């Protein structure tokens, strides 16, 4: 009996169509060149919050409004955040700082609205936690 060829999964295409989290390449382009929120060196990427608030998970990236600038590469801060629960716990402060810089930079919707919502979300989560 001949086997049918396996079809490639189209998870990414399906996910993109059902993901309602706020996405903005324009905001991420603003975040990437900022100084690394951890070491103040040259950042290379926009790191989305992990490990707290159930904002992300396996195969689920947090909204772009919950992104911060980090340096990449071996031994870089990006890798360190993923490996360290202590560093993950500092993300609210780094995010707040990044979002406030975004609010100083942008004046147009929907970016301003998404960033204001993110600040409220962080404050509510931190108030409930602390």
TrEMBL record:
Pfam families: DUF968. It comes from the Bacteria. InterPro entries: DUF968. This is DUF968 domain-containing protein.
């Amino acid at each position: 009996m001949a086997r049918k060829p396996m079809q490639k999964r189209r998870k990414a295409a399906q996910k993109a169509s059902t993901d309602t989290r706020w996405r903005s390449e324009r905001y991420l382009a603003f975040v990437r060149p900022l100084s690394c929120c951890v070491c103040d060196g040259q950042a290379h990427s926009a790191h989305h919050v992990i490990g707290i608030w159930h904002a992300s998970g396996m195969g689920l990236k947090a909204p772009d409004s919950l992104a911060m600038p980090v340096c990449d590469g071996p031994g870089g801060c990006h890798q360190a955040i993923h490996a360290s629960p202590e560093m993950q716990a500092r993300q609210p402060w780094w995010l707040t700082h990044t979002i406030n810089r975004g609010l100083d930079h942008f004046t147009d919707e929907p970016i301003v609205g998404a960033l204001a919502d993110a600040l409220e979300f962080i404050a509510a989560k931190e108030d409930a936690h602390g």
